[in-house]
Amino acid sequence: MDDYAWAAGIATDLVNTAPEVWHGEDKLPDLDSLAAFAELHSIPVDTRPSDLRAVHRLRLTVRDLINYPDRTELIDGASVLTSAVARLTVLADSARWAVSIRPGSTVTDSLSLLCGVGILGVVQVLGPERFRKCSAPSCQGAFIDTTRPGRRRYCMPGLCGNRVNVANHRARRASAR
Ligand SMILES: [Zn+2]
Question: Number of folded domains in the chain?
Answer without folding.
Answer: 1
